[in-house]
Design a protein that fits this description.
With about 60 residues, this protein is α+β, with helices and mostly antiparallel strands. It has two helices and two strands. The longest helix is centred in the middle third of the chain and has 17 residues. The structure holds zinc ion (ZN). The site of zinc ion has 8 residues, from loops.
Length: about 60
């Protein structure tokens, strides 16, 4: 089964060996996670803005299943 990497649109073989599926590599996985983080960060509500001083963004997110 071939899927498209959501980050770089490269064709990726979906297999048990590919631990980063549906991404082609760890790099693309991290880019995608970063994109989501930026998306959240870019749209602060007024309430969240008031708490921004105390807000500590997580450097790395681990996705383990
Ligand atoms: Zn990729």
């Amino acid at each position: 089964m071939i899927v498209q990497c959501p980050t770089c649109k490269q064709a990726v073989k979906w297999s048990e060996e590919n631990r980063y599926r549906p991404f082609c590599s760890e790099r693309c996985q991290l880019i995608d996670l970063g994109a989501w983080a930026n998306e959240e960060y870019r749209v602060p509500s007024e309430e969240e803005d008031a708490l921004s001083d105390a807000y500590q963004p997580t450097e790395t997110k681990k996705v383990e299943e």
